[in-house]
Amino acid sequence: MIRRFSGLDATVLTFGFAFLYLPLVMLVVYSFNGSQLVAVWGGFSTRWYREIWQNTQLIDAMWTSIGVALASASLATVLGTLAALALVRHGRFTGRTLFTGMVYAPLVMPEVITGLALLLFFVSLDVGRGFWTVTLAHTSFTMSFVAVVVQSRLVAFDRSLEEAALDLGSPPVRTFFKVTLPLIAPSVGAGFLLALTLSLDDVVIASFTTGPGTSTLPIEIFNKARRGLSPEINALCTLMLAGVTALVIIASLVTKARSVDGKMLEV
Amino acid sequence: MTTPHPKSPVRRLMQAAVPAVPYLWLLVFFLVPFGIVLKLSLSQTASAMPPYQPVLDLSAGLAGLSAFLSGLSLDNFVLLMEDLFYGEAVLSSVRIAATATVILVVIGFPFAYAMAKAHPSRRPLLVLLVILPFWMSFLIRVYAWIGILRPQGLLDAVLIGLGLTSEPLGLLQTETAVLIGLVYCYLPFMILPLFATLEKFDWTLIEAAGDLGARPWRSFRKVTLPLALPGLAAGALLCFIPITGEYVIPELLGGADTLMIGKTLSDEFFKNRDWPLASAVAIVLLVIIIGPITLHRSIELRRLEQAR
User: Fold this and answer.
1) Greatest mean pLDDT range, A230-239, B46-55, B216-225, B279-288
2) Contact: A30, B26; criterion CB under 8 Å
3) How many domains are there within chain A?
4) Residue A9 falls inside a structural domain
5) Which of A260, A263, B13, B152 sits most deeply, having the most CB atoms within 10 A of its CB?
6) A43: in domain
7) Which CATH number goes with the domain that contains B221?
8) With a cut of 0.85, is the ipTM above it?
9) Would you state the pLDDT for residue B72?
10) Which among A85, A204, A266 has CB closest to B247?
11) In a domain, B292, yes or no
12) Min CA distance, A61 vs chain B (Å)?
């Protein structure tokens, strides 16, 4: 057999995963550093975790981030699912080429361009910038990701079940909610989670579209990180890593790791 | 499709709403903003609010429109062409993105290859381990490298401890640091499309090549590589396109001399408050990546057709 997992392959994987995970491990370890100086080890301490808790600026930013993520991911899930249905089910309609282009473009658009375009748009409308402008901005770039995830499920969809329901006299809207939606629900859920993560992760588009007084957690971290390291940020990042890891483990247990496979990244 | 129900007006309306709602949303929040960027790139800076001119005055009717149109010019693009700074930013973005992509291929290929050779029962776990960092904040992953690369940071401590170097490397705020950060953050984007291709690979072909007397390197070059090429191209473009416009990594890990066009755009906008010039830079960035995007699209479409 040529296809043997050799010692060389094991070495490649070991080094690869070490490269992917060691920086994060170091970040976690140093978040428990008691010293004010980030580079010096001052003994184990949970001091920085307590300090985050008292930092109202960070806590406010966290709530803003969670609010923006939940609102934009919900909107994006509805819009993205509709877009996927339109792409897969509505054969030809006026301006289909333009529509397809607009659905796919945000996937590859550099964030600085999307951010700049949306900011200029909000400025020209003369609306006050803050929570809602960031939410709308996040909705419009994450809905494309939802559309792609749901679309890949719809393409593989067995339509005879829908047709059976229709033949038995079920109205189309009812058929959609009783047959179609439950069948595509895992991909809709995966799309929602992806939109949530993308929104929680975004710093560039949020910095462009936010206004004075509103700040998300990534914006706070970015502004602190620009000035160098801070032990508080180490602790905060560790908490976020723990949160994401827990979510991913729960999600993969629930969906038996099927919905988080390669499809997620096939954009 | 069988349609037992007569088309009632309500039903037709619901049907039309499926494409119409996301369509309208995208027109308003995608196409219109881009029209504004394009328009602004043809305008001039003004010390007013909004800080540019001409401003379209719809209340003046046709006269307002013609005054607006005659106020547009290509001055920003002429400036971008003539000022060496911007040309350098463009070249350096493309150079950094290309270098990072080559390094990603060199690291990602053996990795995806080893993953594809692993026992099928282990593969879901390996895939999960590659995806996990992708779900973790991009910003946190970049931030982690500040602690490693800074002067007297972890990398220096380890290298000095091992006796490999006697002086701190001082990598932070250099192009090397930016490249390390880029490779680190984009590695999953390279590995996953490659793995998806290699996983379906028919390994008996290699055996056949071996039986026919091909040496391992030759069968790799003549059999494996051509078959892995679609995945390789998809991964490379998936990395190259966003890296060209990358902003966060050069801002956090690079120095003042690390020029990247995404950072130039942001600086023009926020620091110099030159909105028209920032818009022109955005158009230039779009022009640079439109070729790779089209190529990526056509590769993906071919892959989809083959899968059917």
Assistant:
1) B279-288
2) no
3) 1
4) no
5) A260
6) no
7) 1.10.3720.10
8) no
9) 76
10) A204
11) yes
12) 15
A13·B114 Cβ contact <8 A: yes
Indicate which CATH number applies to the domain containing A199. 1.10.3720.10
CB pairs under 8 A between A and B: 259
Give the span between the Cα atoms of A80 and A211, in whole angstroms: 27
Are the beta carbons of B236 and B288 closer than 8 angstroms? Answer: no
Largest CA distance in chain B: 83
- The answer to the question of residue B65 being in a domain is no
Q: Does pLDDT of B53 surpass 80? A: no
CA distance, residue A174 to nearest chain B CA (Å): 11
Inside any domain, residue B214:
yes
Residue B173 lies in a domain: yes
pLDDT over 90 percentage in chain A: 33
Q: How many domains does chain B have?
A: 1
User: What's the confidence (pLDDT) of residue A263?
Assistant: 46
Write out chain A residues lying below 8 Å of B118, CB-based: 5, 9, 13
* Chain A residues closer than 8 Å to B139 by CB: 201, 203, 218, 221-222, 225
Please count the CA atoms within 13 angstroms of the CA of A22 that sit on its side-chain side: 11
Give the single-character DSSP code of A237: H
Q: What whole-number distance in Å separates Cα of residue B211 and Cα of residue B199? A: 22
Domain containing residue A180: 56-265
| Cα distances (Å, whole numbers) of residue A253 to A205, A241, A243, A258, B170 | 32, 18, 15, 9, 43
**A146 within a domain of the structure (yes/no):** yes
- Calculate the average pLDDT of chain A: 85
Give the least confident one: A17-26, A74-83, A123-132, B197-206: B197-206
Q: pLDDT by residue (tens digit) across B95-150?
A: 999 999 999 999 999 999 999 988 888 888 899 889 888 777 888 899 889 888 88
Mutate to test the interface with A, among B3, B18, B261, B286 (most CBs of A within 10 A): B18
Which residue range(s) make up the domain with B103? Answer: 75-307
Q: Is B38 helix (H, G, I), strand (E, B) or coil?
A: helix
State pLDDT tens for residues A167-182: 888 888 888 888 888 8
Residue type, B104: L
